[in-house]
Design goal:
With about 375 residues, the chain is an alpha+beta fold. The chain has 3 domains: about 160 residues, Periplasmic binding protein-like II (D-Maltodextrin-Binding Protein, domain 2), CATH 3.40.190; about 100 residues, 3-Layer(aba) Sandwich (D-Maltodextrin-Binding Protein, domain 2), CATH 3.40.190.10; about 70 residues, Alpha-Beta Plaits (2-Layer Sandwich). Helices cover about 25% and strands about 30% of the residues. The protein has a 6-stranded mixed β-sheet with strand order 5-6-4-7-14-8. A 5-stranded mixed β-sheet has the order 11-10-12-9-13. A hairpin with a 5-residue loop joins strand 16 and strand 17. The two termini are about 25 Å apart. Bound molecules: adenosine-5'-triphosphate and 1-O-pyrophosphono-5-O-phosphono-alpha-D-ribofuranose. The site of 1-O-pyrophosphono-5-O-phosphono-alpha-D-ribofuranose has 14 residues, from strand 12 and helix 7.
Length: about 375
């Protein structure tokens, strides 16, 4: 499934300007047997408390005259529209069998096989849309939730295992600054002005720097790593994954503000309890896809007397499955093992006499 698909299954037309999201008029050629056709009737409250501007839905004023359908009663699920998290989110949706086709110029589309609408938004906007209840579920980075100061308004339901990186203080490798204390009172450039501001405020308090002597934080929207070379900053605060960007800019990290990864979030205060079963279903499906990527199934044969040692090596998530073999002295063991540990686990199994060790990747699972 790809966001690049060109055919149109859903798109909004005839929008009243600045209408609430759920009262927006939608176009769709959904099958009349789809769940949306029998979804719960619209609640007036949805229309009053969803304040997503109409440009999100109809940025170019399209009206292609297809059948009209409302968003009312649908679960709204926010997905990063571009950037590092976008492709991984599409893979997740595909693995969870959330079927949709997105017109390349529309940021909202209806899901064909569930009463859900996907809303494609910048990752940095998703925490406040979810936190304020404009959408019901979202995927974004843990870092942007903190940067948007939305941690008290959203619940992180699931860690997704991708988008892993660290927010770090970086300075020129060849320069005089060796520690964060050396940066006190100097110029910092960042896209994370809230998190960097909090971090350097604490440092300034420790170093008793106030007024003009305090550390200066300046916001830029991108290419943060260029700021030191351009003479705009003494240090930067930016995300680091492989470190390639940092090293290419002649920088190195001297402190870590936080580690982050992509998370599935929902609003802390559920305004629409009728959506809760669908939120649980989607969470369970997504959790299954994430677990399938994280685990493999390890099967092997082992002498019965070595079973305690074997199950200590492969305890499984709950417990290993043990089946008798025709040869009474032997059993077959099947167990889920974390992918990243599998080589060591196989070495240890060989050492205690396991034979016929087989590893299977999982397409999907429920945990
Ligand atoms: N190098 C990276 N490795 C892993 N995850 C990252 C990386 N850079 C960013 N992220 C995660 O993805 C989120 C969105 O970052 P990204 O830079 O893709 O955002 P964007 O501004 O929407 O996209 P773009 O940079 O294309 O404008 C970040 O907040 C972070 O959680
Ligand atoms: O450690 P690395 O693997 O090099 O990744 C780090 C880079 O990734 C992110 O930017 P991205 O490439 O998403 O583009 P952006 O600068 O436009 O946000 C981040 O802002 C860093 O620049």
């Amino acid at each position: 499934m790809s966001s690049e698909m060109q055919s149109v299954d859903g798109g909004i037309s005839n929008l009243p300007d600045h209408s609430g999201l759920r009262s927006s008029t939608f176009q769709s050629n959904l099958d009349s047997n789809s769940p949306s056709a029998t979804s719960t009737p619209p609640e007036a409250v949805y229309q009053a408390d969803r304040n997503i501007p109409s440009f999100v839905f109809n940025p170019h004023g399209y009206n292609n005259g297809m059948n009209a359908e409302s968003l009312d009663g649908r679960l709204l699920f926010a997905i990063p529209k571009k950037g590092r998290l976008h492709e991984k989110c599409l893979e997740l949706l595909s693995g969870a069998d959330i079927q949709f086709r997105r017109h390349h110029r529309l940021d909202v589309c209806l899901v064909k096989n569930h009463p859900i609408a996907l809303v494609f938004l910048p990752a940095s906007d998703i925490p406040s849309f979810v936190g304020k209840g404009n959408v019901d579920l979202g995927i974004t980075g843990h870092d942007v939730i903190l940067e948007a100061k939305m941690q008290d308004h959203v619940e992180e339901v699931l860690r997704l295992g991708f988008g892993k990186c660290a927010l770090q203080v970086q300075v020129p490798e060849a320069g005089p600054i060796k520690s964060v204390e050396d940066l006190g009172g100097k110029r910092i450039v960042t896209s994370f002005e809230v998190l960097a501001g909090e971090y350097f405020k604490t440092l300034d308090e420790k170093l008793q720097l106030t007024g003009d002597a305090a550390t200066k934080i300046e916001y830029v929207g991108g290419s943060v790593e260029a700021a030191c070379a351009l003479g705009l900053a003494d240090g930067i605060v930016d995300l680091v994954e492989s470190g390639d960007t940092m090293r290419a800019a002649g920088l190195h990290a001297i402190s870590t503000l936080l580690e982050t990864e992509a998370v599935l979030i929902k609003s802390s205060v559920q305004k629409h309890p009728s959506l809760e079963p669908l939120i649980k279903l989607i969470t369970s499906r997504v959790a299954g896809v994430v677990a399938a990527g994280r685990y493999v199934v390890c099967e092997y044969n082992i002498h019965r007397e070595k079973l305690p040692a074997a199950t200590a090596i492969t305890p499984g998530r709950r417990a290993p499955t043990i089946s008798p073999l025709e040869d009474e002295g032997w059993v077959a063991v099947s167990s889920m093992v974390e992918k990243k540990k599998i080589a060591t686990v196989m070495d240890e199994l060989v050492m205690i006499g396991a034979e016929d060790i087989l590893i299977f990747n999982l397409d999907n699972c429920r945990v």
